[in-house]
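Reply to dn_fold:

You asked what the input looked like. This is it:
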Amino acid sequence: MSKASEKHKARLSELNSFGKDLARRSKSHCELCDANSMKLVIHEVPPVDKEPEFDHCIFICENCQGQIDKPKSIDISHWHCLHSSIWSEVPAVQVMAVLMAQRIREKADFAEELLDQVYLEEDISSWIEDALKS
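and this is what came back:
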């Protein structure tokens, strides 16, 4: 097995160790769209550090994950959920919600309006800037 493969497996194992705490925090609902009764996956909010950090992880459904990973497959109507997730008290959720709103703003008027309304703490704004650079 290659070193890269071993590192990847170790990272996944470390991320999976966050699963119970993420399930507890999210109440087993997608932290972006609030879907329940669906398989949830751990998503690392960029920028991703060398070592996985719990505070940079969110628990999301495979639908959200697929659309984050493949921007061409975005279903704009699905992202009306940002109206609530952008106000999350979990910084990683708020960052990901803002990043998605920025991604769809040209195709969705509601996203532009939402970005105009949202107030971001300085640390959240810095995180978003860093994510956009990565």
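Strands lie at 40-44, 57-61.
Hope that clears it up.
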